[in-house]
Each structure stands twice: as C-alpha cells, then as structure tokens.
C-alpha cells in the first residue's frame, strides 16, 4: 500500500499519525513520505504552493494532519509536523466547494484550538506552536 493511499474519509497515514500522537511513528511516516516524494514515488506539492506543503494533504473535511493533531490535543505531534514543514495555517477551500462536500465547519487549526482547548495548559501550548509557525512562515 503506497504512503499516499487514502481511506474513505480521504485521510492518509499522516492524518492517522497526527491523530494518534505517537511521535516515533509520525517521524517515521514523515521521513518515509519525504523519501518517497524525493524519489518520485508519490506526488507532493512544493513547499508554499497553493495546495500547501508536501504534508498538507486535506481529507474530506478539508483538514490536514495539523488540524488533527490540534483537534486531538497532541502537542508533541503538532510540534513534529510543524518542524517538518507543515503549514500552521493551511489554505482553506472556496466556500462553494465546501458546501458541496461537507456540512462540517471548515476551521483553521487556531480556531479549532480556541474552540476545543481554550485557555487550558494544552491550549496555550498549541497556540504558541501555531503562532510561532505562522511567524516563521511569514518571514
């Protein structure tokens, strides 16, 4: 099964790794994903493209692995994803596309953090990682 295989919800192994919060697994998957992309075995978008970076694949709810790490409160997984080049603020689809594809709210990772984790210790840690990532992306 190729790394870029998607399940019925259009999620890749990176989505699963981000949800699970297992740092060793996530590092292994990202390393394997990078290697496969560099060897031309899977199609990856160049960093900073309109589709996001090489790891910013969206599922049927337009969520990337970063969204799932935030949603599940996996601070260490989020740090690994951001260090690896994932966008802290992935691009959003057009509203006309969202209406046709899902009834779920399309939120940024920061909006998910605020809604789910608020000012808890975990929320503060996630917010800091996202803010630092957005600052790095803009410079």
Question: What can you tell me about this protein's structure?
Answer:
- 53% of the residues lie in helices and 0% in strands.
- The chain contains seven helices and no strands.
- Helix 3 runs parallel beside helix 6, helix 4 runs parallel beside helix 7 and helix 6 packs antiparallel against helix 7.
- 33% of the residues are buried.
Features:
about 55% helix; mainly alpha
Largest sheet: none
- As a percent range, the share of strand residues is under 5%
Q: Give the number of helices.
A: 7
Mean pLDDT reading = 85
Distance between the termini: 38 Å
Give the overall shape: globular
- The rounded Rg comes to 14 Å
Give unreliable regions as ranges. none
- Number of strand elements: 0
Order of helices and strands: HHHHHHH
**Helix-strand category:** mainly alpha
Please estimate the helix content.
40-55%
